[in-house]
């Protein structure tokens, strides 16, 4: 198959393959940098948060640290540099991924602490209503069987 291809066509196929590989690396890096849900207003543990009353959910949202797009771009740049390095330094890449995992873990711990504090302030009836909303959300989205 490749013998019948002209050099120009072969070059185009190789460039297309390279572009697809970079797109895949970009998707993976973006997922690692933004974390679950791709950033925005989606949180790790979203069903637990979305079942809260609006005022408590807003309070958790207000407690988040401000976004830092420059730091996010710097992390992405470092990740891309590590992927393109020749020779490849697996230790450097592992350190970058561990740093991102630590940030995600810290974020999840902050959300969990806020959730527990919000639930501790509720009466028994409010927690029961919360549990009902959570069960409804999970069943509606097929996450609990």
Output the keywords:
145 residues, mainly alpha, 0% strand
Major pleated sheet = none
Low-confidence stretches: 39-44
Percent of residues in helices: over 70%
Which H/E pattern describes the elements?
HHHHHH
Taken together, the total number of domains comes to 1
- Total DSSP helices: 6
Question: Which outline best applies?
Answer: elongated
Strand element count: 0
How far do the termini sit from each other? Answer: 50 Å
Radius of gyration over all CA atoms, rounded: 22 Å
Mean pLDDT: 79
Strand content: under 5%
Structural class: mainly alpha
Please tell me about this protein's structure:
- With 145 residues, the chain is mainly α.
- The chain has one domain.
- Helices cover 73% and strands 0% of the residues.
- The protein has six helices and no strands.
- It has helices at residues 7-34, 46-50, 54-62, 69-84, 90-120, 124-140.
- Helix 1 (7-34) packs across helix 4 and helix 4 (69-84) packs antiparallel against helix 5 (90-120).
- The protein is elongated.
- The model is unreliable at 39-44 (pLDDT under 50).
């Amino acid at each position: 198959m490749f013998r019948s291809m002209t050099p120009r066509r072969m070059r185009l196929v190789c460039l297309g393959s390279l572009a697809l590989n970079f797109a895949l690396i970009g998707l993976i890096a973006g997922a690692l940098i933004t974390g679950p849900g791709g950033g925005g207003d989606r949180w790790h543990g979203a069903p637990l948060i979305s079942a809260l009353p609006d005022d408590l959910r807003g309070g958790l949202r207000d407690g988040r640290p401000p976004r830092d797009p420059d730091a996010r771009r710097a992390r992405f740049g470092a990740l891309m540099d590590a992927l393109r390095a020749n020779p490849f330094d697996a230790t450097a890449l592992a350190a970058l991924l561990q740093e991102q995992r630590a940030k995600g873990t810290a974020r999840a711990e902050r959300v969990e602490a806020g959730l527990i504090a919000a639930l501790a302030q509720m009466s028994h009836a409010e927690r029961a209503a919360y549990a009902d909303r959570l069960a409804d959300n999970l069943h509606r989205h097929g996450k609990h069987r």
